[in-house]
Every structure is written in structure tokens, then in C-alpha cells.
Amino acid sequence: MDGEFSAQIQHWCEIVLMWVGFGTITGLLAKAIMPGRDPGGPIATLAMGVGGSIIGCAVLAYFYTGERVSPISPLGFVVAVAGAFVILTFYRLLAGRMIDEGGASHRVRGPSFFRSRRRRYADQETE
């Protein structure tokens, strides 16, 4: 029984490492396809790739009821990249990086932003 448990642990570790590699590759490819600066670091890229493969394969399974498609296959890779691309698009839309509604001055950058505003208003009042 101990050998069987060890084999199951090894099998699950291999699956997790395979998904980490697969998610990283699909997330990087989705970021390479979309132009512009990309938000997030390596963990966000990994999560985007894994989430994209889940979304892509779910959409494919919904519309294509013939047979199940494994995420780690050529067709699964294509839909995973498409799903990661969709996640990146929505992430940029929610972060406000695709739609600029008034230039860079509308974003609050920290305490220096407020100091410069106070100085500007103080200069206007003294004039």
C-alpha cells in the first residue's frame, strides 16, 4: 500500500508540473500575440495560461460535442492560447490599459500626485 501511495503522489506531481509548464507557455504566447505592455508577472502569466486552457477547452466542449479534447494536445493548445488571450483582453479592459479616457493625468500615482495638485491650486490662488 505504501508503494501505491508513493506512485499516486508521483503521478500527481507530474501532472502539476506539466500544467505549470503548459500554463506558462500558453500565457507567454498569449502575451506575445497581444501588442502593448503586459500587466502581471510570472504568476499572473501562469494563472492566465491555466485559466485560458480551462476556458478554451470548456467552450470547445460546449460547442463541439463529438469527443472530449485534452488540453495538452495540438487543438487543446490552440484553444488554451485563445482562452488566455481572452483573459488578457478582459484584464486589460478592467485595468483601463486599452481605453484611455483622458490621458495619463487621470491616474492617481501616489502622494506626489496630491502634492503637485496642491501646489498648482496654491499657485492659482496667489495670482
Automatic annotation (TrEMBL):
<comment type="similarity">
    <text>Belongs to the UPF0410 family.</text>
</comment>
<feature type="transmembrane region" description="Helical">
    <location>
        <begin position="15"/>
        <end position="34"/>
    </location>
</feature>
<feature type="transmembrane region" description="Helical">
    <location>
        <begin position="46"/>
        <end position="65"/>
    </location>
</feature>
<keyword id="KW-1003">Cell membrane</keyword>
<keyword id="KW-0812">Transmembrane</keyword>
<dbReference type="GO" id="GO:0005886">
    <property type="term" value="C:plasma membrane"/>
</dbReference>
<protein>
    <recommendedName>
        <fullName>Transglycosylase-associated protein</fullName>
    </recommendedName>
</protein>
<dbReference type="InterPro" id="IPR007341">
    <property type="entry name" value="Transgly_assoc"/>
</dbReference>
<feature type="transmembrane region" description="Helical">
    <location>
        <begin position="71"/>
        <end position="91"/>
    </location>
</feature>
<keyword id="KW-1133">Transmembrane helix</keyword>
<keyword id="KW-0472">Membrane</keyword>
